[in-house]
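Hey all, sorry for the wall of text incoming. These are the two entities for the joint prediction.
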Amino acid sequence: KAGVTQTPRYLIKTRGQQVTLSCSPISGHRSVSWYQQTPGQGLQFLFEYFSETQRNKGNFPGRFSGRQFSNSRSEMNVSTLELGDSALYLCASSLNLGEKLFFGSGTQLSVL
Amino acid sequence: AQSVTQLGSHVSVSEGALVLLRCNYSSSVPPYLFWYVQYPNQGLQLLLKYTSAATLVKGINGFEAEFKKSETSFHLTKPSAHMSDAAEYFCAVSTGANSKLTFGKGITLSVRP
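and here's what came out:
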């Protein structure tokens, strides 16, 4: 069974641009969560989706948004990029809400 | 609100020595507690979790952790370190049937030959 797949693996953008990151969960998993990992702030929760609905949201500005499709795949979007958005963005999927999370390898975003 | 404290950012042990990584939590409701490991350029892998069953939790790769409510602690141990244990370890807490985890800052474990 394939694991959680995140694309692209690496991304370089400049300030002010927007970016879309993609996450394909493990087949059959219905819940997808996103986390941001930075050296300074560590791992911080962004959002959680289940059955195409956002169930939980972390403390991030409105520039960060996401969605989940009917096949459980998820995307997150960051608009008007800032230098501080440089981070490893991790996606995790689970069979249902509150169950064991399986993490992808992440997308490393660099904002120049 | 919940939080996790992992004291220190780096622990170094000799191969074969005891591994002890400390984690203290704060939670207003009974917590679910987790330990994750992250190898370089990889995502997080669940080592073990506590969900109010047995207080001593056994995980993968020979790791275990003990939930101590009186000390609000959930320290991770392994009797004998192996070179392959070198990685970053994160303690995390959640408080309900959702996937929102609050992580500690992480501890880098180095294993000396």
